[in-house]
Amino acid sequence: MVQMDIHEYKDSKVFPDYANLATQADLPFVKGQFELHLAKYGIILVKDEKEAKYTMRLISGTLATDSTQLLLGTPPLPIPLPNTSLNFSIPELAFFKRQSRSGFSKLSMTVLDSGSQKPLRVYESIMAKTLYINYTILFIPFYSDNLITVDAEDTELDLQFFE
């Protein structure tokens, strides 16, 4: 969402329209991130569209995850104990294992005049992709990713937008 430069709407009352996100499993996260992005720019959110100067309609084209796994070794093997309902498992023995997880997002947003519903600005095809890979080589785990992480203590809200 940082690809959406919305500083021109600073101090404006905005109604966020999530109707086109209704079927997304991650809807609460997307809404939260979007509202956090709006707050960064000092945008005032309202619950009634009639109170707003602008309506920001968020649309999701893709919001998905994918995972794959390759194992050279033996998977966990359950072994039933005779004459009981119990079983135990031999743990996985991985000589080489690769697990990858990818996240994909494609969002669009239309900014409308709340009164007339006239489109004022369109942000199309805002895309992001993440990749996280775990490796195990001869029982030793490694990982690789393209995620950007920051400790909470090291982050500060940029207050220039509120001045």
Write a short abstract of this structure.
This protein has 163 residues and is mostly beta strands. 9% of the residues lie in helices and 50% in strands. The protein has one helix at 27-40, and strands at 13-17, 44-45, 54-74, 77-80, 87-90, 93-113, 119-137, 140-145.
Features:
163 residues; mainly beta; Rossmann fold; two-stranded antiparallel ribbon; 8 strands; 9% helix; elongated; disordered C terminus
CATH domain class name: Alpha Beta
Class based on secondary structure composition and strand pairing: mainly beta
Total number of helices: 1
Spell out the helices and strands N to C.
EHEEEEEEE
Mean pLDDT: 85
Which fold does the CATH topology refer to? Rossmann fold
Work out the number of β strands: 8
CATH architectural name = 3-Layer(aba) Sandwich
Q: How would you describe the shape?
A: elongated
Rg measurement, Å: 23 Å
Query: Low-confidence spans: pLDDT under 50, at least 5 residues?
Result: 154-163
Termini separation (Å)? 22 Å
Main pleated sheet: 6 strands, mixed
Strand content: over 45%
Percent of residues in helices comes to under 10%
- Number of separate domains: 1
Adjacency order of strands in the biggest sheet: 2-1-3-6-7-8
